[in-house]
Amino acid sequence: MVLCPVLGKLLQKRVVLASASPRRREILSNAGLRFEVVPSRFKEKLDKASFPTPYAYAVETARQKALEVANRMHQKDLRTPDVVIGADTIVTVSGLILEKPVDKQDAYRMLSRLNGKEHSVCTGVAIVHCSSKEGQLDTEVSEFYEETTVKFSDLSEELLWEYIHSGEPMDKAGGYGIQALGGMLVEYIQGDFLNVVGFPLNHFCKKLVELYYPPRREDLRRARQDSIPPVDSFENLSDVEAGHSEPAHGEAGRGWDGPGAGGDQQAGSAPKADGYRTAEPPPFPADLLELIDGFKASKALFTACKLKLFDVLKDEVPQKAVDIASKVDASVCGTERLLDVCATLGLLEKSDRGYRNTESSNLYLVSDGEHSLHDFIMYNDQHTWNLFTHLESAVREGTNQGHGALGRKAQDLFQDGPLQSKEDQLRCVGATHGLAKLTARPAATAFDLSRFSSACDLGGCTGALARELAREYPRLQVTVFDLPDVIEHVSRFQRDGPETARVRFLAGDFFRDSLPRAELYVLSGVLHGWPDDRVHALLRRVSDGAGPGAGLLLVEAVPDAEDREARPGLARCLDALLRPRGRERSLAQYRRLLEQHGFGDVQVAPAGHGLAALLGTRVAP
Ligand SMILES: Cc1cn([C@H]2C[C@H](O)[C@@H](COP(=O)(O)OP(=O)(O)OP(=O)(O)O)O2)c(=O)[nH]c1=O
Description:
alpha/beta, seven-stranded mixed sheet, 37% helix, binds thymidine-5'-triphosphate, Maf-like, S-adenosyl-L-methionine, protein dimerization activity, nucleoside triphosphate diphosphatase activity, SAM-dependent_MTases_sf
């Protein structure tokens, strides 16, 4: 049985494993591959110093091993193999490449270097496709490498020597075999276990997918726009034509239209129960696969932000993966992959000279930029990501699970409990600031507010909206009223500008402390975070403080906003389910709330990005 369908592509071919390693043989035959073994005679003595990285050395050695066998077989019996597979495993520690020990002393030296530390195990693999034209061998080489981190425990001299005397280290890179006695030396590993044993089977299968199922052009285009690279998994590919190398995809780039949408079934063939004719495979579900991969794209972005990759690349000059890796203190191979994913997602530009930020990444992803969403992204990574792992129980029970984040104010976040440290608080304020900057301008300009000379933004956090109001209305004085823990952090987010003098910050709790007097009260993104009783309590306090003619401006995300497409309704709706206290309300419900609390003549205007603005005027009691 061939569990991974893409291996079936090799079943009809003459495949040769150019290796004497019993581990490689076992890994590949366990996977269902049929092959001959012809150990390579290539001497592993390339000049290591001439390679820019250890993995480049391993890949080149693997390539030479495979080519030597391909050439020898071709010359010897003119029975050219179809595919030759070569591999080379090395251990690297502190910049040093360790291969197989030459004697026991050498094994001791190697194991002492690894003792108590992390090291990398890297396997380079070469897949050589061969053909013979007029007696000449023609080869096409595909290569890749895989890196795994291994950590050794602190080991005594005695134990090391006992292990060396077992004889196990001698034919193994780094002087140990993780699959046998050497497993006892290992505290943990990060990455593919089989890669350490000598052959990265998972990556090999992915590489075969890349070779035998090349992505269609429209998939690549779409992937560049908004997803991770299409060849990321191999499990979903069927192999109806095992042994042939035609792509398994249908010709047309049909999306996730559901059964029957293809419209080009062959007349005459019998329909099956699922609506498809036997001779015709169903449309390739590209959009669905993209959706399945969506979380990986988010996590790649989160990780790149966490490593501050975009900070490293904020200068115009492109940089190489190896330099970036050392600046962010990460492995070269891991960093390179992440950089490539970011380039595919359109977050970075990649050229021969290296990687650099796109304009949009410079604007939004650099951590200290004026418009940075870095804190918001980190908030999503640390809190929302975990929160959404509880979605199933939230859906089953219909109860709130904890702490939602989308569109929330620092007010909500601070009262949710786990954000106790100053660092957490600062991140929340930064997250709220990043979002508020995006929505402040349309909110400030939704109505003509020039009749007011003073405003109070309740829960206004860093004053992003307050500044926009002050900028738009030159005689307006704005007070930002928020919790002391929020106000403590706002100075970090202030920029110079002529409106700065007309914005002041006041610390207080709008449920308990007296509210500043103002002609216009603003509640932007506040009410959705509270249940009805709290909303009524807050509006009552605002209404009591507002004199006749005073305004109340509400800005909220509503399901019936005119441009709701701007923010996926689904995500917002799920967020509401997961939010601890709040609830989503319709435009009509917000209008009723205003009227109930003495604000009449309610006007409504879109405020962009799925938000609506409502402006009510206090009627005389
Ligand atoms: C680190 C480690 C390596 N190894 C083995 C895998 C490889 O067989 C060997 C590294 O040497 P290689 O030179 O990669 O391979 P090889 O000499 O065994 O076989 P060939 O060159 O003919 O392909 O070390 C383990 O078996 N377990 C381990 O934990």
